[in-house]
Amino acid sequence: MNEMLTPQPTLQRITPDTLDAILAEVAQQKITSLALIGPDVDVDIRGQYRAVKRLNFYPRVYQLSVPVSNLGEKLKRLSYLSSLLLWGISLEVTGVKHLANLVNLTTLDLMESRIGDEGAKHLTNLVNLTELNLYGNEIGDEGAKHLANLVNLTTLDLGMSKIGDEGAKYLTNLVNLTTLDLAWNQIGAEGAKQLANLVNLTTLDLESNQIGAEGAKQLANLVNLTTLGLELNGIGAEGASTLQI
Question: Are the C-beta atoms of 149 and 172 separated by less than 8 Å?
Fold first, then answer.
């Protein structure tokens, strides 16, 4: 994604007609990156939005003025894309099926796009992915099972989902992960024990789960961690002392 590194992206609001022209240009010029956000996403381009730093990888960010129902179908012909960001767009399962044709993607960001477990299943065709953001997509254990096939992932965000201990176990198949965000899920001590097998992790966010002191003890095995989020987990003084927090 080096070609896209810019200090500040440009936000351009567009109509559906303008979108068609932009996508035609992307296809014709074989452009490798694209960022689209839905009309209801409140983005402060200066950095107040939760994950706004991710926009900095894109020289231009387009915000739709109204929802586009067949967006996935419109995007499926953009075979040269290596990086795609779609925020706050209701892709749902039908739209994700079309995205599965974009096999050159290495980075995919579908924050709050309502894809669910069935949508996650269709992403398993994207075997070249190294970065995947599915924050706020209601992914559960079944979805985690499907995503565990994306073995080239190094960065995965499944925050604000429905993943429990079983889902955490599936995710241990992703041995190349260095960054994993599972904040606001349903992971307990057993799930933490499973995640402790991901020894290459340098960043792990488990804010607002239920790992407790026992789960915190399990995470002590992750000796390469430089960033660890455990707020709202009830780890207490015992768990904190185990991690030397």
Answer: no
Task: State the Cα–Cα distance between residues 99 and 84, nearest whole angstrom.
Answer: 10
Class level of CATH domain 151-245: alpha beta
Structure tokens at 160: 């604000």
pLDDT tens readout for residues 19-57 = 999 999 999 999 999 999 999 887 664 444 455 677 878
Q: Using only C-alpha atoms, what is the Rg of the chain?
A: 18
Domain extent listing, the chain: 1-114, 151-245
- Determine the Cα–Cα distance for residues 112 and 133; give it in Å rounded to an integer: 9
Query: Which residues are registered as beta bridge partners of 63?
Result: 13, 37
pLDDT tens digits, 59-89:
889 999 999 989 999 999 999 999 999 999 9
